[in-house]
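Operator note (shift B, R.M.): manual run for YIF1b requested after the automated queue skipped it. Running by hand, logging everything below so the morning shift can see what happened. Input copied straight from the record, untouched. If output looks odd, do not overwrite the archive copy; leave it for review.
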Amino acid sequence: MLIVLYLFFSEAMYDNFATGPGADLQGPRQPSPFGSAFYGAGSGFIKSGLGAYGEKYFGSNSEFQNNVSRFFSNPQYYFNVNDQYVCNKLKVILLPFLHRGHWTRIAEPVGGRLSFKPPVQDINAPDLYIPFMAFATFIILAGFSLGFVGKFSPEALSMQFTRAVVGWVLQIAVLKSILSSLGSGEVPFLDVASYSGYAFAGLSITIIMRLIWGSTYYIVMLCMSVCMGMFLVKTAKRIILSEARNYERRSSRQNYLLLFVAIAQFPFFFLLGRIGA
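Run finished. Output pasted below as returned.
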């Protein structure tokens, strides 16, 4: 289901977002005049709007925009993906113990400073394409599950959507707070949102197995929880090792907090996976 939805939307996503470094790996594409126009107008409107409100409520216009840019990073960066990246990334997320390569992101000098390569060029880079597609897939599968048990209604589906959004926000809050407490520096918000949203890929697999073979639901849910916990621990540890300065001195505390991140995946999968319960 994830792959089908990905292929369905991939062309539209490429036209609007695959303009960063490495986007030409798929060959030249015809640009969309409407997409370019809306993107340019939208970007200018958002920047001017944020600048106006920032100057009104927070003082300096440029300072406010710099803070917003640092907090949200570059949204376009997180959608610079291709087919190969999505397939390989799903393997890393769903089967992290089979990933034999390194977990370190690839950096390159840009404008006199180091900048990370986009997802299309780095399997370890975070993206928002998979989380959003996995989230949409999860909501669709939740609707099917509700229909199979005779409990489908717009209100029930809306409740599942709300629960999923709240779960994603809580996942972001937990991961962000732990990374901050471990001295990992200013990790961009969209990075944390990407890492947290990957859990919906495992949740979608869990719901699919529940629809196909209900007796395997709890086994698959347990396996997906373990895999997601392992993925987040590997990712968080890489962030800590690359940015923290006192890893050795506080290694015990860090290990306990990373263990908490892994354990937190079990209630997350259990609560969101109970469709129609």
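Quick read of the result: The chain has one domain: 1-15+80-277. DSSP finds eleven helices and two strands in the chain.
Leaving this for review. - R.M.
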